[in-house]
Design goal:
about 250 residues, alpha/beta, Rossmann fold, 7-stranded parallel sheet, about 40% helix
Length: about 250
């Protein structure tokens, strides 16, 4: 499927992974809607690139619906990439004081990373399903974001790992559900990606994680996520797959 001429929704489009994806898809000729809650960054991208920014709460149906409607106004919506962030809740299942992990904290993390991903997935799929078929019956592609923590989560990451494991688990089923409609679904599972959000702490993270990556011995770049997203979009035979983007890194227990 060609990126040029399609409209694309990028949820979390002002973050490190999202912004890189917005820039990559825009450069390839897509009409991009940046869906996020960071107004200053969103409007800056809008002014710089000519993309559209729509303030979007990924967990709210009407909010996501408004972003989708904006994308549909620009052209046939065939691309949805969701890389929104959320709270970094965690801790051990049983604390040092003997108390169990907070159920509310667990639910919050599950909602942010799994339920909200499902919300974007279902609404994007319904919108893409209305588009005219292309070659091979294709209508579009949806890309979700998990993490390698879904496979080898570290101590203290249980809520996050459960949520990202859920995103991984949805991938093949969603692809099968949507196959009659000509919609592909893939998930990118990044390892340690160095994004601008880390600020000055990025140097310390690079010094810690870089040597642990088999090759190349550095943290990943947001542009590498964006390049993979574009490759998934353009390769019609990639479907129902979770692709690790980690330089062969496997997380240790802690």
């Amino acid at each position: 499927m060609q990126i040029t001429g399609s409209s694309a929704l990028v949820v979390g489009g002002t973050g490190g992974l999202g912004e890189a994806t917005v820039r990559r898809l825009h450069a390839a000729g897509a009409k991009v809607v940046v869906a996020d809650v960071a107004d200053d960054k969103g409007k800056a991208l809008e002014e710089e690139l000519g993309v559209r920014y729509v303030r979007t709460d990924a967990g709210d149906e009407d909010s996501v619906g408004s972003a989708i409607a904006e994308a549909e106004s620009l052209g046939p919506l065939r691309i949805s990439v969701d890389c929104h962030g959320g709270p970094a809740g965690g801790g051990r299942l049983v604390g040092k004081d003997g108390s169990p992990m907070s159920l509310d904290a667990f639910k919050t993390t599950i909602d942010s990373y799994l339920t909200w991903t499902f919300n974007v997935l279902r609404l994007s799929a319904a919108a893409i399903a209305k588009q005219e078929q292309l070659e091979d019956g294709t209508r579009g592609v949806i890309i979700n974001t998990a993490s390698i923590a879904a496979f080898e989560g570290q101590i203290g990451q249980l809520p996050y790992c459960a949520a990202k494991g859920g995103v991984v688990g949805m991938t093949l089923v969603a692809a099968r559900d949507l196959s009659p409609l000509g919609i592909r679904v893939c998930t990118i599972a990044p390892g340690t990606i160095l994004t601008p959000a880390y600020g000055q702490a990025g140097e310390k993270l690079e010094a810690y994680w870089g040597p642990q990556v088999p090759h190349p011995k550095r943290m990943g770049k947001p542009s590498e996520y964006a390049t993979l997203a574009a490759s998934i979009i353009e390769n019609d035979y990639l479907n129902g797959e979770v692709i690790r983007l980690d330089g062969a890194l496997r997380f240790p227990p802690k």
